[in-house]
Structures are given as C-alpha cells and as structure tokens.
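__Protein archive entry__

___
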Amino acid sequence: MAGEFMQEPMLRLNGVNENLRILIETVLEGADSPQKVKGALLEIFPEFPFGKESAEPMLGKASNETWSGEKVSLETFLKLLHDQRILDTALDAMTVNFDGKKTQFSLLRQAAIVGKVAFPLSNEQPLGGVITITLQGENLADWLEAATWHKGRDIAPRSIKDEHSMDEDGEAVTWL
C-alpha cells in the first residue's frame, strides 16, 4: 500500500528456545489454596506443568509443598510487562540479583491472580506468597535488555544496574 506506514511486528521472546535455563517455583504453605495458586500461575505462565492435584488445606492439615517447572515459556509474562508498561521497573527488579550469568526474582501471587505483574521489594514477606523465577544463560544480560526493550530507550538508554536503576528499597531514581 503506497504511502502507508507499515510497522514491522515486534520480536517476541519467550526464553525457551533462546539458550536460557528457566525455573519457576512457588511454595504452598499454611492456608495457601492450591486452586488459587494454580490460577495465579496460569495467568502469568499458562504452560506451567502441574502434577497431581493437591488437596485444599484444612484444620490440622496445612499446605506444605513446592511446585516447580522448567522450560516454561515466558511469552505471557513478557507480554504483560509490555501491556502494563513496566519494562524499566521489570529490568531493575529482574536484575537485582544478577551475577552475569544468572538472576533470580519474585512476583507477587496476589497480583498474578488478576493477571498483573508486580515485584515485591527484596525485604518483603508478602501476604499471598510469591512466584520465584530463576534464569540462567551465557547471554542473559543481552536477553534481559532485549526482553524489556521499548522505544523510549532510543531517547533514554537503559542497561542493567545503570545509574537510573531503582534503589534497593524500590524508590525510583529521579532523572535530572
């Protein structure tokens, strides 16, 4: 179509076929409802593998198990980051524990229940529990920056642990 601007489709990463080791875990304890936790996981990671059904907790029989899945696609998670427009926050939160080849970060299960991504502060023990994601790979830094890229970075470039990263307590750094 002459004269019309044709936009290229955005590259969608998922981590699975990109030489990353992906581990997603969550711990059920106490009064955690397996059905609600399952719902939260499926909102963010629809391909999460579930084993046998877990019984709902009752008096004298609390939840006490860990669910984990490897090679789970991050496509929905990354799409939610883009849709919620929290890509810079995500880059900061996902790399607080980055060591060059590995990172580990958490998501709030309460937010996940309604299809939202929220990151707890490192010193928080959030009500409702967390989903822990561990990513490992040779080119993980490049992958994380690509997965959280947005057009604003053409004007204000960002990189892992740069001078614009949020503080450990979650406070935003003010740009001058």
